[in-house]
Structure prediction request, 674 residues.
Amino acid sequence: MTMLFFNRQEKTDFIATAAQRSSVINIDDKQAGLHFLLSFFSSIRPSKNKRNPAVNMQFVIRELHHHPILLKNLQHAIISQLIDADLSAALTESGIPLAKGFWQELFGRIRHKLLPPLQSENDFLYVVNRIFFKKNDYEWVENIPYETWVLFFETIGLSSQTDDKGILIQLLHAMKILVFQVSQLSLEKEVFNYLPQESRNKNPFIQQNYLFHELERLIIEENHSPELLEVSAQLKSTMQQCYDCINYIRGNHPQYGTSLHQTFTVVVLENKIDRIVLLADVLDNDRYFDTSKFVFFFKILVRNENRKNSLREFLSQCLGYIAYQIAEHKGSKGNKYITSSRSEYRKMMISAMNGGGIICFIAVIKNILTNLEMPIFWHGFLYSMNYSAGFVIIEESHSTLATKQPAFTASAVAGSLDTRKNTRQPNLYNLAITVAKVSRSQIASFAGNLITVFPGTFLLAWLYDIFTKTKITEGKAALALLDGQHPWHSFALLYACNTGVFLFLSGIIAGYVQNKIHFGRISERLRTHPLLRISIPVQKLHKISVYAEKHAGALIGNIALGVMLGMSSIAGKLFGVPFDIRHITISAGNVAIGVYGIGISNIPLLYLLTVIFGVLCIGFLNFLVSFSLAFIVAVKSRGVRMKDYPEFIGILWRYFRKNPLDFVRPPRRSVAEE
Prediction:
């Protein structure tokens, strides 16, 4: 206990005290060495008096140069922990998922969160966990610049400490485990089948195995001839080919899609290759040790041990590439919702008016269904089918629904900052222009929807009254329709946020399904299906397969959105909680039906204007929530950090101040001038 919780005075004065010591730590005294390292790194850890770890480290490096006894004790303390220690877990396991699949690893981490596994004192990871015992130690370790860590490890002569025979054997053993595992993983069908053709014929993941055995033989024989350097160079070249294969697989995700298992396997492969490259650098005997690579490994090691049971870290690493493919699908589709010219703006308006016309029927049918007596579940089911059918018709007729745009345009905007595609600094002024285009496109679609929905639904309500001699709704029920859209007489604005979440989720579902269709090669499987080939003409089957490849994701997304919207109020009633949805176009239709049911002359003007204002607020919240969630997912999956572009807000504001109308309608100037 005293080794972990030493007093502040010891922490503050440790370097000064250790610099005045006259004795040197015996390399056979593991406890004394561990206690020294614990105190040493605690003097670098940020504290009340020494808050900047980089400054603390620079001070320590200067002291190591000025006081040879301090440097000698630090070297002996490190060697004491390396002698007879088991290094294999640190080199082959730490930070690399061990389970055979995504779900096994996930559940394994959950178990270890509840009951941590035992750790042998002989395991070098035990030393790492004792020294960096605070769960946030990785933060200050990462905050110290690479150059400072490189200088530190070069000062203590790290490379010369790997010459011990016992350590050398352990490094070879760890490397042997890794090269076998890499060879095995490369033969997984979800990796091998997606390699470039030349790499399948001459698999670099297999070649590195043979090269390692040759390297191992030369090292054990203590053969320091040029042959060792040649084999080592060949191994490093082969590992670079392995990296190229991984990049090839990831680069073809938009074309072929990906899966959890493939993503998980590739992440594991990459981590293991990183370790092999590091070990090869230590063992190649070229008298050059790449300290910067070791610093990278050291930082990763500390982070892994601090975060080894973190579910967030694991999910972020493995789901990132799938999220990227979903964002890519949404981003490519989002471009069709962004208008540049006046002709495109007019087409968007007309398309939105067509979409509004379809929503008129959805709103009327939904209110007719509400009047039917049936069990509550079937109400929800029919609502869902009504919404789903309407959204599918809008999709297939190439009409526009304003609230579906944000989930896709957000990904398109984030795509201009994509660090995986842009090799240069993104043009933030062009990004500001893109935001203006998204703004005016969104306004055009909202306006087009509402221009049709208000009068169109009112007309349908009147026609229903003419033909059936009854109103769709009247009296208290009609007033309830109006009150349900009132911004402060109901939870309409909160429910509008729920809708924004569902709109975002439907975009995620559409992107995920489209990704799975590409990865599962559904189009090709349909064309080669033995039963379909003999029952459907070839040309027709080809059209079906192409349609499925291009539209299945959007169809599933629309159906999912319809089910989520249709079942929301039913779920609220079942659980007795105020849970429902408010969608701007459907709310506008409800207002039109309510106005017809009561009679416009019987409604106070201020009340009606407030309800219409509530509908506009519902639309704004639908857009804001959906766009924000989609944008967050898009930028995170693309490796974008908005804090890296603090100047963007200023650029956007200056552009808005100079061209405010560009955010509402297209400019007269040409696209090139813009």
Remarks:
- Residues 114 and 553 are 39 Å apart (CA to CA).
- The two ends are 67 Å apart (CA to CA).
- Residues 1-12 have pLDDT under 50 and may be disordered.
- The chain has 30 helices and no strands.
